[in-house]
């Protein structure tokens, strides 16, 4: 039997060995685990770096693809030709990539190398009147704020009747300021003036009067009524069409892109039968007026506007699209536009070197009345010796006929011609038309009988009044035919006519037709400066504004472009505004604005874009990487993103490869 003694330490080292082995094993395991993790991390970092480099390269490829294209971010365009995705197979190390593109809605279309060469006005509001009336008059509920984005400049005074005028920049007035004005810096009133206060002198889109247009057919309520560019002179007809009692009420009135000239003559003392009387105010009291290229809710161009149109944002806005083709409404004489219960949106045309003027009040031009004495081009019949030249003037040597004997006889003379050298264009107002017949008989007697008639080309005969002198003297008979010729002249269809002369005498003698003349006085359409009541100071009850928008239910009025009327007053009441009323600034003689208590829009009512170097359009690019795959499509989280801006010298006509590129931001998930 083996016994252990108390002092025996046999086997005591074993636990120590086990502890040591365990510690070593743990340490070795930790070291091996750390080494494995390090290797794995190194591999992952290497993969991430490769992915990041691939994504960066893909973004650069996308940026360059747009730089060398003609993409402008316009509605309906795609960044990369037919698609908004650029696929890059075999791109990077053993994989592929893709870049998706989204147009940046925050476009800046301002090109301003200098104040004189700029496609937006220098001020949001510029009034040019120099005294006798308020330059800027603002009326609104107490506590309200009339907001403007841009400089406010009055060459006379500023009168804020209630509330406050708030702008993000400067306010200037050469006269006094009344009321509360918030600006940075503080408003400068009673200033001596600066270049900002000068009339920019924008030229109209028209250099001559375009062809007169008849009003389109209006037969069915809730229809699309289409207008073509041209000259319109009938305010009463336009107002009747756009009233609640019209046959085509609740319609969309579409004015297709181009230049329109409105010079109404309803108040003229002399008018053709088809032009109704009245004032020269075109009133939109019903329906939806859309002027310019129509767009849908997403801003994409469509073939025609819907009925009803959704106003605002019914037409392509030149502030957002460098390819926007809009209208210019040019007003002459005392012609005016009033928007009552109807809705109207007028979009201008984008230009790289001038503002998109949508409303224009003419500052120069006048009518040039024409008078003409017209004679025949030829004459036939029983009379002899008469030539076109001799019959065209009173000289005693016209066409003659000798009675065959004492019993007398009958003779006829037919003269044709009487044509103006230049046919009066459609829209011409005939103020006077008279046919003059000078005749005699050297043996005149009271029993002689003479008749004559003038037949305009394509018209009905007009009897002429002839006298019967019995003393052998010459008779001059003048018949007024103004009312019979006015419509043909107005329609532009008058080309002359034919005059028939018949004589029947009971004795011998010589009948002489000395002269046959048509005397015309008419006024062709002309580009003429605003006049009449539009030029009276806006303190007179007889004064009138070029544009008036009133506080009627349903009323909406928007100008997507510049309003330029340096000799006229604008008087608008804001009731249902949902965005700025005058985009791209207002230049007028005087501006009166009234805000009612129902206005809920809190943005700037009148604005111009800020000064900036300005990019034409921008895009958001997202890069996706697909390692080990032959193709790649956008999906999941992009590896890298970029916001990129492009600047074209002429945004409407981009040159591939010539545009400037500016990377606004660049980020990656690394």
Tell how many strands the DSSP assignment holds.
39
Shape: elongated
Mean pLDDT score: 88
Give unreliable regions as ranges: 1-10, 15-19, 23-28, 30-44
Computed over alpha carbons, the radius of gyration is 41 Å
Instruction: State the major sheet.
Output: 24 strands, parallel
Tell me the span between the first and last alpha carbons: 75 Å
What fraction of residues sit in β-strands? 25-35%
Number of helices: 4
Helix content, binned percent: 10-25%
Structural class: mainly beta
Architecture overview:
By secondary structure, this protein is mainly beta. Helix content is 11%, strand content 35%. The protein contains 4 helices and 39 strands. It has a 24-stranded parallel sheet that branches. The longest helix is centred in the N-terminal third of the chain and has 55 residues, at 13-67. It is elongated and about 130 Å long. It starts with 12 loop residues before the first helix and ends with a strand.
Topology, pairings included?
Layout: H1 13-67, E1 85-88, E2 95-104, E3 125-127, E4 136-139, E5 145-149, E6 152-154, E7 158-167, E8 171-173, E9 177-182, E10 188-189, E11 224-227, E12 230-232, H2 235-241, E13 252-255, E14 258-262, E15 281-284, E16 288-291, E17 327-331, E18 336-339, E19 343-347, E20 357-361, E21 370-374, E22 376-381, H3 388-391, E23 399-402, E24 409-417, E25 429-441, E26 449-456, E27 462-464, E28 475-480, H4 482-491, E29 497-505, E30 510-523, E31 547-549, E32 556-560, E33 562-574, E34 582-583, E35 586-595, E36 606-607, E37 617-627, E38 640-647, E39 660-668
């Amino acid at each position: 039997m083996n016994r252990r003694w108390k002092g025996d330490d046999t086997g005591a080292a074993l636990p120590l060995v086990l502890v040591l082995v365990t510690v070593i094993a743990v340490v070795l395991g930790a070291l091996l685990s750390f080494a494995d993790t390090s290797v794995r991390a190194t591999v992952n970092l290497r993969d991430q770096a490769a992915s990041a480099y691939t994504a960066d390269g893909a973004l650069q490829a996308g940026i360059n693809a747009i730089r060398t294209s003609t993409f402008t971010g316009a509605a309906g365009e795609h960044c990369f030709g037919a698609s908004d995705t650029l696929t890059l197979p075999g791109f990077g190390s053993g994989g592929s990539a893709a870049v998706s593109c989204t147009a940046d809605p925050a476009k800046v279309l301002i090109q301003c190398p200098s104040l004189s060469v700029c496609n937006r006005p220098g001020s949001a509001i510029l009034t040019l009147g120099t005294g006798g009336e308020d330059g800027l008059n603002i009326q609104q509920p107490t506590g309200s704020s009339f907001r403007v984005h841009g400089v406010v400049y009055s060459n006379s005074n500023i009168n804020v009747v209630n509330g406050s005028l708030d702008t993000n920049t400067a306010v200037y007035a050469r006269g006094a300021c009344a009321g509360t004005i918030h600006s940075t810096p503080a408003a400068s009133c009673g200033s001596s003036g600066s270049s900002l206060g000068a009339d920019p002198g924008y030229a109209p889109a028209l250099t001559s009067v375009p062809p007169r247009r008849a009003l389109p057919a209006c037969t069915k309520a809730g229809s699309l009524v289409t207008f073509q560019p041209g000259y319109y002179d009938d305010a009463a007809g336009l107002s009747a069409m756009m009233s609640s009692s019209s046959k085509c009420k609740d319609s969309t009135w579409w004015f297709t892109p181009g230049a329109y000239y409105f010079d109404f003559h309803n108040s003229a003392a002399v008018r053709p039968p088809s032009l109704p009387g009245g004032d020269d105010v075109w009133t939109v009291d019903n329906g939806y007026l859309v002027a310019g290229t129509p767009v849908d809710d997403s801003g994409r161009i469509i073939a025609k506007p819907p009925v009803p149109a959704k106003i605002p944002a019914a037409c392509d806005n030149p502030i957002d699209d460098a390819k926007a083709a809009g209208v210019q409404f040019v007003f002459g004489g005392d012609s005016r536009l009033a928007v009552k219960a109807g809705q109207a949106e007028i979009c201008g045309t984008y230009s790289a070197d001038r503002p998109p003027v949508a409303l224009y009040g003419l500052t120069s031009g006048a009518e040039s009345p024409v008078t003409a004495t017209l004679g025949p081009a030829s004459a036939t019949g029983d009379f002899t010796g008469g030539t076109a030249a001799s019959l065209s003037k009173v000289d005693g040597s016209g066409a003659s006929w000798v009675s065959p004997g004492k019993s007398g006889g009958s003779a006829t003379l037919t003269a044709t011609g009487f044509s103006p050298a230049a046919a009066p264009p459609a829209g011409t107002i005939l103020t006077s038309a008279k046919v003059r017949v000078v005749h005699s008989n050297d043996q005149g007697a009271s029993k002689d009988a003479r008749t004559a008639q003038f037949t305009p080309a394509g018209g009905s005969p007009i009897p002429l009044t002839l006298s019967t002198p019995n003393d052998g003297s010459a008779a001059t008979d003048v018949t007024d035919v103004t009312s019979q010729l006015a419509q043909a002249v107005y329609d532009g269809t008058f080309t002359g006519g034919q005059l028939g002369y018949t004589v029947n005498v009971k004795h011998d003698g010589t009948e002489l037709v000395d002269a046959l003349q048509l005397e015309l006085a008419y006024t062709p359409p002309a580009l003429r400066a605003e006049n009449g009541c539009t030029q009276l100071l806006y303190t007179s009850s007889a004064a009138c504004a070029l544009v008036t928008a009133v506080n009627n239910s349903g009323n909406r009025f928007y100008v997507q472009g510049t309003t330029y009327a340096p000799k006229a007053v604008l008087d608008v009441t804001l009731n249902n505004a949902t965005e700025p009323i005058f985009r791209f600034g207002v230049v007028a003689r005087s501006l009166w604005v009234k805000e009612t208590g129902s206005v809920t829009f809190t943005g700037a009512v009148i604005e111009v874009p800020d000064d900036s170097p300005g990019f034409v359009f921008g895009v958001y690019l997202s890069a996706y990487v697909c390692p080990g795959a032959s193709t790649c499509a956008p999906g999941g989280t992009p590896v890298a993103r970029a916001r990129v801006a492009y600047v074209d010298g002429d945004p409407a006509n981009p040159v591939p490869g010539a545009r400037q590129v500016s990377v606004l931001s660049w980020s990656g998930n690394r």
